[in-house]
Amino acid sequence: MTTVSRLILAAVLIVAGGGKIGTPVLSVEAVKAYQLLPESLATAVGYGLPILEIVIGVLLVVGLLTRVAGIVSALLMLAFVIGIASAWARGLRIDCGCFGGGGQLAAGEEPSYLIDILRDFGLFALGVIVAWFPPGRLALDSVLGLTPSQEPDEYDDTEGDDEEPRQEEDH
To answer: Are 67 and 130 in contact (CB under 8 A)?
Structure first.
């Protein structure tokens, strides 16, 4: 379950970051359209967000720092849900800019806030799954021994406290 969640989340983040990284000016414009951040911070977020999305996506694909990547992705998705809900509540008519583009909608275009919120909330749930559960056998974290094993080995008694000591009988 974690591996599937990891890969779905990774694919979405890589596609979203890839859609923005080639046109950073549009990414900045999309962030500014939300009218939530001061101009200088919105510019920094607009330039940095695509890079962050791609890096977190790659970490999820290979399963390295999986729980950290899960937490960061869940927080990103939660921020996106809050931003979109805020734009909707304030009556802004913008494209979310989730996969590139963004900014004010053209005349006659309708925002898809509910769909965007539901999608991002589902992705938030995947991020929580990735952060909460072990990364799985196909994760680099598991291969490198960076996470505790999922199943204890029935023959491994390294602590020696799982069994009661045998009493030798004296005959």
So the answer is: yes
